[in-house]
Amino acid sequence: MTHHDSGSAGEDRWLLVAVAGLLSFVAMLDMNIVNVALADIADGLHVSAATAQWAVLGYQLPVVALLLPVGRWLDGVGTRSALLVSTAGFGLCSALAAAAPWAAWLIAARLVQGVFGAVLFVLMPVLAMRSVRPEARGRAMSVPATLGPLGAVTGPAVGGLLLDHFGWHAVFLVKIPFCLLALLVARRAMPQDTRPPWPERRSLADAVLVAAGVAVLLLAFTLASDEAWWLLLVLAATPPLWWWLRGPAGRPVAVVLRVSGLFRTHGAVLALAIGFAAMHYVVALHLRRDDGVSATTTGLIVLAFPLGMGVAGPLGGRLADRYGARPVAVTGAALTAIGLLLLVPLGDGWAPWQVAWRLALAGVGMGLNGGPTQALVMGAAPPDRIATVGSTVQLARSLGFTLGPALATAAWGLAGAPRAGLALAATAACLAVPLIALPARPPAPVAEQTADAAYT
User: How many other CB atoms sit within 10 Å of the CB of residue 227?
Assistant: First the structure.
């Protein structure tokens, strides 16, 4: 797959960048929009709350578990076919979920939708990067990097509105028009593929192995928020991941990261995701439970973060194209860390605006950081391994989003105060600053890449 398989050399296809942003928003929206409808789903399908919870987990587990095998697959197949199949499948599964007459149907639809969602998660930044010239990469990468997280944080608000006016079916149907629009644009704007659209049979076996390990790991972190002993599941996740990493499928992933010198940047992505997720969880819970703030007021206060992020995201891309991705990414991480540090003294006497402006500052930092960091990582990847590196970044971010609330809950429980959870969030964000600031070491000699031969 060449660098410009989505457009001719020297031509910027901003319409495809918009498609990447739109689908990133939709895929991330689906991570949280269903949460607010779980009680209604349980009542409507006459199941327990625990069973209804699988309407969320059924999507999240395959999304995260399949990121690595999907990244390797996308490095060897046609972009157009992958985009059309995954978008159509995602929209179809949304319709099937909305029409579910019983819980098993809904969970099955969500599991399959998660498979298509994993493809969208990895493919969107790749599509944005390959649709523009290198000098416009920062602006292009900022589109999905900003709209994706915005979809995640606005999901509960959008879901609440749809639930109040149209019922739980609407939280699934709302994504279909976006999918149809993306299909129409992509079908007309993208050239025909010269590569096959389907993975090899061996790739499917590799996917099962790594997906099993990552799914168990994700379940351990998710369930540990309620009961710490669930972390013992991490031991069960280790063998399949180790076998995969030492095998012909996993070795190329490790080689690419080592050769590109991207381990520190991945650590920064993980740390910032932990900080963001822990902060979001603690602030919302503290306002509702400890301060007795209404759900509407809490939603408006927390909305300050995505507003700051949405304003700063396009600016971060422009600054990265002018001054370089690393300094802008470092500045964004530093602002996020400052915003979270200022939140640590959060107490019962704070007015809503005192919380909101700190959240807005942290959001501005995340907006400045997202696109430049993505451009930094993808730009350092070998041209024929861009999707592989993109999948590892998405995995680091997804694990951070899952780890954040679990770690914040543990810190809050041990210290007996929300400040402990916020201190953990701020510490994680502070760690990200030097991890991004330190430049990657020079690429290793070509001879060091021989272990990657099994990939091809």
Answer: 8
Token pair recorded at residue 319: 């600054």
Class of domain 1-199 (CATH, top level): mainly alpha
Give the start-to-end residue ranges of the domains of the chain.
1-199, 260-439
Q: What is the DSSP string of 275-287?
A: HHHHHHHHHHHII
* Angle, helices 67-74/251-260, rounded to nearest 10 degrees: 80
Superfamily per CATH, domain 260-439: MFS general substrate transporter like domains (1.20.1250.20)
CA 189 to chain centre: 26
**DSSP state for residue 286 in the 8-state scheme:** I
Q: Say whether pLDDT at 253 is over 70.
A: yes
pTM: 0.78
Burial of 14 (0-12, 13-18, 19+ CB in 10 A): middle
Instruction: Give yes or no for residue 440 having a pLDDT over 70.
Output: no
Tokens in use for 420? Answer: 């402990």
Q: Tens of pLDDT along 133-185? A: 888 888 888 888 888 877 877 777 787 778 778 888 888 998 999 999 999 99
